[in-house]
Every structure is written in structure tokens, then in C-alpha cells.
Amino acid sequence: MKNGLPVVQVLAACCLIACSDSRDSAIGEPQDSGSAAEHAHGCSMSPSPAEVELTRWLVQRGAYEVDGHFDHFLEVDVAFHIVRRTNGSGGLDAGALDGDLADLNDAFESTGIRFERGTSVRYIDSDAFYFEIDTQAEIDALRSTSPVAGMINVYFTPNLANENYSLCGISSFTFSAVQGIVMNNSCSSSFGNHATLVHEFGHYFDLFHTHETAFGVECPDGSNCGQAGDLVCSTPADPNLSGQVSQCQYTGNATACGFPYEPQPSNYMSYAPISCRVRFRGGQRTRMLATLIQLRPGLIGSPGLQVTWVDFAASGAQTGSFANPYRTLAAGIAATGAGGRVVVKGPATTTYAPTILAEVTLDAFRGEVVIGD
Questions:
Q1: pLDDT score at 293
Q2: How far apart are CA 134 and CA 73, in angstroms?
Q3: How much is the pTM?
Q4: What is the pLDDT of residues 76-125, one digit of tens each?
Q5: Domain ranges of the chain
Q6: Which one of 206, 258, 280, 362 has the largest count of C-beta atoms within 10 Å of its C-beta?
């Protein structure tokens, strides 16, 4: 059974209400006329004013903050969907998905998140989705087709566009009305593209582009890095690298706030050429892990995994969630079923020696935890 994290579910409900304007919050990567392996990247849309306000609210409440890392991976299941013609022909070779999954796990290894296939490949036999995905409404219709609950649903189709761009991929944020990721077949790993799916998963865990301006222009000196740009201070300010990178080096001379830009073309969330994008920065990794734990807890899965949080210094409500942990180990153990995991926020010490009658794993987070005499 997966942990429900009640407080986070309330946040999610607020998000859907706050974002009920006419625009979807999906983020996409347009495709140019070059080779399938090297597409130019621009965005189908930036966060709307309502989404900007909501994101700032989440930031203020610590939704994207989590200190430390797990000594084990948090496993997340992925459901791959392949669009074929109505007669069952065509579609991406299912064998290509092994490479896409490997790319994801390579990119997210230092984040503490591991992706697994949660189900066999699911096929959608529809000429409409195969030939005619060229509006946001059609993208949302595809993402609403047979999604698997508790998994990240990724759809591959040979023709992908919205009203403005031909797209390599498009994703949702946690607060998007329609969830899921849609990929153009030609932007999969089997065509030499090892960055776009990773980029879209970054958006799925609430990362913005490194050149985002919806929150304001980020100053290259970092003075407003927490309030502007992508809201991540470990990523340097970025003027939008489309057409400004040669041999993975920035060639532009733009300035902002009186300082020259020194962006990083190697960042997955930039618009540098695909072959240049190979890493996330520390603040991005923290943000994605926090998003998984606090805003997408229903994705945390391995068979029977239940996570109950304990913090000996906690105050306020006690629900066993990350945000409202139990104050005692006894309460955490009592609330955890067989096969579950009790995670104590460290560093901490308790003289309490628990009696554990069910098969429960004890784990420490953010430092060493000493239990017993």
C-alpha cells in the first residue's frame, strides 16, 4: 500500500482549484527540421500568472525543500504507451523503451529516484492519435487514454504538435489539470536523443527551464536566484541558449542586471543542443526528490511500500507524512503495516527500544539515528 500523505493531498487539491484557467500547464520541446537526434528546443508555453502565483505559494511552504538523501532508491513505476494505427501496424519499436528507461535511470541516479516498468507496454490503436496530434486538446485527449494509476504515464506517437510548434515532447507539472508525458517517436533514445525524455521528466517533477522568465529575469550574479528564473540557485542564470551554443560552449554575449551571462549548456533543462545536455545540478535534484516525496507521494512504489515519517523534534499535527511526522518511534511503528518503512529524520537519538511484531524496515534520513541504549 502506498503512503497517502494526507496534507500533501490537500495541497494538490488546492493546486487544481488555483490553476483552473483555460491553459494547461504542460511544457514542451519543439522540433525543428534538422536530424531527429538534434532538435532545437523552445517552449510551447510558460507558466501562466495563476501558476506562477501557485508555485510561489508552494515554495513559501517548503514543498520543494528536503535535506539529505535516502541510502536506498525510491522506486517509481512508469507505464509506457505506444500509439499505432487503427489496424495495429506502425508505432515505436517496444525494444527502444529499454534505452529510454536506461537514460532516465542514468540521469536520476544521483537524485535517489529509480524508474521501473510498472506494467507491460500498452498499445493504443488509433489513426486519430497516430496522424493528427496537432492541438493541445488532442494532446490532453491522448494523455487521458487508459492512464495507469500510481505510475508516470508516457505516450509515444509519431506525430506530435500543438497549435504553435512541432514537438519533441510535452509534460505536465504536479499542478496540471491533465497529467502525463507525450513523446514524439523520433525523439526517443533509439534515434540518438538521450535528453528530451529526461528533460520532460524534470518538468514532471516541477523543474522549470533554466531560462524561465515567468517569475522574472534572473540576474547572472545570483542575487535573485530564489525568486526569479527557474527558482533554483545552483543553476546559473540562462538567457535561452537556442542558437547560442557551439561545441557545447556558450557563444552569446547577453547581459542582465549589469552582468554577463555564464550559463551551463550541459544542463538537462536548458535549450542547448541535445548532445550537450547531460546533467542536473544539486538544487534541481533536491527539488525533484522533494516533489516526489511531498507532491507526488502516490508514485513512490515498490511492492507493498508504505512510508511513515518520524521526527523526534516535530510539533503540531501528527499524521505520519513528511510534513507532519509522528513524534515518537512507537507511534510510527504502530501506524505502519507489514512490509512498510519507518523513516526517522536525523540526526537523532532515542533510548526507546522498540518491540517490532510486524516486518517493518527502519530507515534514517538526513543523518544518523541511534535507537536504544
A1: 87
A2: 37
A3: 0.76
A4: 999 999 999 999 999 999 999 999 999 999 999 999 899 999 999 999 99
A5: 6-210+272-293, 306-371
A6: 280
Contact (CB, 8 A) for 287 and 64:
yes
| One CATH from 3.40.50.620, 3.40.390.10, 3.40.50.300, 3.40.50.1970 for 6-210+272-293 | 3.40.390.10
Q: Say which residue, 335 or 120, is predicted with more confidence.
A: 120
Residues with Cβ within 8 Å of 167's Cβ and at least 6 positions away in sequence, in order, are 28, 29, 30, 31, 44, 160, 161, 182, 184
Cβ partners under 8 Å of residue 365, min gap 6? 68, 70, 343, 344, 345, 346
The Cα 331–Cα 322 span in angstroms is: 14
Cis bond leading into 347, ω under 30°?
Answer: yes
DSSP classification of residue 275: G
What is the residue whose three cell numbers read 542564470?
Answer: 237
What is the rounded CA–CA span in Å between residue 229 and residue 116?
Answer: 32
Is residue 161 within 8 Å of residue 133, measured between CB atoms? Answer: yes
DSSP-based three-state secondary structure for 298? helix
